[in-house]
Design goal:
Elements: H1 2-8, H2 19-32, H3 36-50, H4 55-72, H5 77-91, H6 102-107, H7 110-122, H8 125-134, H9 140-156, H10 158-167, H11 171-176, H12 184-197, H13 202-210, H14 213-224, H15 231-244, H16 248-256, H17 278-294, H18 301-313, H19 316-325, H20 331-345, H21 349-357, E1 359-360, E2 366-367, H22 368-376, H23 383-397, H24 401-409, H25 423-431, H26 436-448, H27 454-460, E3 464-465, E4 474-475, H28 476-485, H29 489-493, H30 497-511, H31 515-523, H32 527-536, H33 541-559, H34 570-580, H35 583-590, H36 597-602, H37 620-638, H38 641-722, H39 729-779, H40 784-834, H41 842-880, H42 887-932, H43 937-970
Antiparallel strand pairs: 1-2, 3-4
Amino acid sequence: MNFLRGVMGGQSPGTQPSGADTIQKLCDRVASSTLLDDRRDAVRALKSLSKQKYRHEVGIQAMDHLLNVLQTDRSDSEIIGYALDTLYNIISNDAEESAESEEENQQGQADDLGILFTETFINQQENITLLLSILEEFDFHVRWPGVKLLTILLKQQGPQVQQIVLVSPMGVSRLMDLLLDSREVIRNDGLLLLQHLTKSNASIQKIVAFESAFERLLDIITEEGNSDGGIVVEDCLLLLQNLLKNNNSNQNFFKEGSYIQRMKPWFEVGDDNAGWSAQKVTNLHLMLQLVRVLVSPVNPPGATSSCQKSMFQCGLLQQLCTILMATGVPADILTETINTVSEVIRGSQINQDYFASVNAPSHPPRPAIVVLLMSMVNERQPFVLRCAVLYCFQCFLYKNQKGQGEIVATLLPSTIDAASLSAGQLLCGGLFSTDSLANWCAAVALAHALLENSTQKEQLLRVQLATSIGHPPVSLLQQCTNILSQGDKISRRGSKVQTRVGLLMLLCTWLSNCPIAVTHFLHNATNVPFLTGQISENLGEEEQLVQGLCALLLGICIYYNDNSLENNTKDKLKQLIEKRIGKENFTEKLGFINKHEYYSKAGQKPQPSFSSPDHMMFDHEFTKLVKELEVVITKAIYKSSEEDKKEEEVKKSLEQHDNIVSRYKNVIREQDTEIEELKQQVTTLQSQTEQYQTTVTQQLSQIQQHKDQYNLLKVQLGKDSQHHNSHNSAQMNGFQSEEVSRLKEEMEELKKQHDSLQGELSEKNVLIENLKHNQVDGQTGQTAGVSEQAAEMQKELETLRSQLHVQSTEINRLQAERMELLQKIETNAPATASGDHTIPTASKNKEFEEKVATLLQEIMSLKKELKSVSEEKCSLKQQLDSANSTVAILQDERIKLQHEVTDSKKEQDDLLVLLADQDQKIFALKKKLKELGEPVEEDDDDLESGDQGDEDDDDDDDELNDEDDAVEENH
């Protein structure tokens, strides 16, 4: 303190106190005063002094006292606000810029002073923790200064403050609450604070993202009007970029949270050309950059592809293409939109196919690719726009063999349409134009149509060009070499380094890994002498790059040479290099490529970014090709002929091995696909089988309930009939005859219904049997052994069917006997009235019951056999599932049969009800006969038991048919 007093100067009696003395007195008041008002006034005075030239003195003397105020006077929001403002003034550099003099600038820079006080403040982590706790106060005069103070601390010493906040309990959560503050000033400053807090710190970025930051920021952007919003939207977008850029975890969270769908309204810009304000351009530029962050080529491939898929599904790509083809869009927004669309479609087949289908709103409509290529080869367009179009075309062809084929097809003679302008024609036009930049861009674009696609390299050999009237057409390959080697006007245009570099990159890409193209190139006798002449000459630095590319092209002709030309075999080309150039000199010239300054810049990222057109020399994908070929070409130059032969043999064996492996891979892939399909079919059939079994079980339980109810009803009716008394037979005789005749008619109708129902069930059984025959016949060619078992099972089923048919015939015969008994009832009724007792013998009834019982036993045994056969068929079905090719048809038929069986079941239930009504009427008739005094109780009871047995046979027969149908459906 004495030192500061010495610097400020001493005081003489009667003079005004110096600033240091004033600050000292104020600090003493803050530290020692017992009244809150005195302390508040002192802090207010310190705040005023800190804005002026006494910032340094206030910071040195008062910082500790201000921190003590923040701890002890938390109950008074006014003094806390003054203290925070004072700390902000002494740490911030903004307040001093206007008042600082030259002498003070010499003593120390303002930035250094702010960093000094910031380090003093954060030396004790408790100060940051205290500041975070103060931010929980809702009072505006406390919270807002606290936000500004923490923001300036992050600006001055960001990494150190970030670490302190990271280890503070609930530190990030407290700062996220600022985004929910209803006061826009605090919310907006909170956005700035979070921008500095999340900069270059992945841990804090993850915490902020999981504190619902995406939801809140997107809500703010929507409330502010999306791209039409103000500076707040810009701050939100900058914060989103901090959270997502180079943070794969947050990118995945953003995609899985369905936040990509909420980005689509950002790009609904409309057709109002007058609505492009400077802020809107800035906002839209940041929005496009945010989309590129999600689909950047440096991201993991899986994350990028999933984001690309989501952008297509939600319509974001379609919205971007609309902006791409719109009119009146500012040039920088159009350029950034082209770059964004490029990365959204890069490597995504579905997005590339959609982009190929986009048409520009012109008359007639033209593909968007054609419109963009017209801008690329037009020298009047801005340089950055032409680079963006080239990048878009490269991304469209990246891993897109379908698109590569479509581009090359526009150059083939059979597909050229003279009436319309195609992409191939534009590329050829740019390749041979007078603009060297157009030459380079067209050559690189055409090279991307050939990357890793041997088929298109061979197809491009068919392209013929008409050079002039009266001269025969030449191939595209020949024309490219002519530009490099001939001495006419075309060659003088090609003398530019940029043009020749582009053509050499195209030729190297074309000839690599394509022996047929190498043969076509070597077939021209002037090509090899031109390359050797270029390599052997001693030229300047500008020509060294061309020499290196010529050496690379000649090396490709050696490495991929199939020795089909006697004059240009591998050995002869090596001998030529050794005599004319020298192996060491050749290797040195080849090394000029990767030593070039533009080579390393091009290899950093896929997007072509150059400061000027003269710097466009290398393509990103071509740098990868150079890395692959440089080593193998160097080895090939120094190898002997015997080593070459051995290498050829090894190559052939490896190729054969690769072919075998690839063939087995295809077989395994197909088998995996079939297995997956069969697994899905098995799962579907199992679920259907469970449903069918559940249905059958329910139907069987319902049938059993109906049988129990029917038996109970018969017992009840039998008991009731035993307690009835007989009445006057003379009075009831006529009535009995009428009832018997009516009963006979009803029985006839019921019999007809039953017969028709039996016929329908038989037809269904035949239909199921035919379907089973068809299924077995369709599977015999695939599983021969299983088909034999199926045939045996089919024979067993036929045997059981025949046995069932015999039993059904026997049941019909018994039903006929039953009808005869009914007729006897009618004939016996008058005799009984006159006193003649004609009663059927008990022996016939007993014989009838025995036959019925025997038939029931046989039916039950047949049902057991059918059940066992069904179980065997179910086990057999699991073997047949692997070769089942008619599942879909059978499923439809089963559904139809199930509906028909259900209808039949309903009709049978109705029949049971009618039979129950018939029995009731018979009992009523018995009652009337008893009342007449006729002794027919025993006969009627026997007949009743016979009828009941017969009806039991019918029920059992119906139940057997239902179970048989259920078994067939389960199969």
